[in-house]
Every structure is written in C-alpha cells, then in structure tokens.
C-alpha cells in the first residue's frame, strides 16, 4: 500500500487492485481487472480487510459477476423482479465482510439491482435507487 497526496488529490495504491482516489467521502478505483467497473470503499482510511476484499474481487471478477447473476435469477420471483438485462456493475465495499455489487437495468422501476454479500455469500437483493 502506498499513499500519495499531490495537488489536493489523495491516492492510494493497493497491490493487485490499482490506484484509489479519494472523492470527498469515499475511495474510488477503476481496476483494469474489472473491465470498467468501479470499486467504491466507504471509509476514511482503507483497512487491510477492505484491501483484501478489493484484491479478491479483482482476482475473481468473472466468478463474482456470475455468482451475482445466478443469485438474481434464484431470487427473481421473491422480489418480483422484472428486469432481464443487468449491466455496468459497480462494487461498494463497506467492510471486508459486507459489500454489494450493483447493476444497471433496462427497467424503469428496477433500474438498479444490487446483490448484497456477507463474506463470500449473497445475502439479499437491493432493488431501486
């Protein structure tokens, strides 16, 4: 981990992930391994557990997305989900054990669908904005 402050931009380099930039109230990075997805870390200081979660996401991104899509399909009826297209995923890490992958959709009502995780297991869907 390497912290750098230049021209009022605070950055943090995390091995296996990339550079995070401080953005008013959270850290944000667009790691190459995530094909355009953004990782947001909701913390003033990124903990070692949050770093480990970000690195694990980068190392297993395709599997994480597949797990999310499978969970969405599994819970579709329970949540009366109408959306069928899930795109542009982004990740929000609260702490190492609690994190969420959000997808945009084609539906107006279900315009945002998130899969909330505790550890490595999906916990619930979050629907709407």
Overall structural domain count: 2
State mean pLDDT (0 to 100 scale). 91
Q: Mind describing the biggest β-sheet?
A: 9 strands, mixed
Q: What is the 3D shape?
A: globular
Q: How large a portion of the residues is in β-strands, by DSSP E?
A: 35-45%
Structural class: alpha+beta
Outline the structure in words.
This protein is α+β, with helices and mostly antiparallel strands and 129 residues long. It has 2 domains: 2-47, no CATH class; 61-127. The protein has helices spanning 48-59, 61-79; strands spanning 2-6, 9-14, 18-22, 27-29, 39-41, 86-93, 98-105, 112-118, 121-127. Strands 1-2-3-4-5-6-7-8-9 form a 9-stranded mixed β-sheet, with helices on one face. The protein is globular, with a radius of gyration of 15 Å. The N and C termini lie far apart (33 Å). The model has no long low-confidence stretch (mean pLDDT 91).
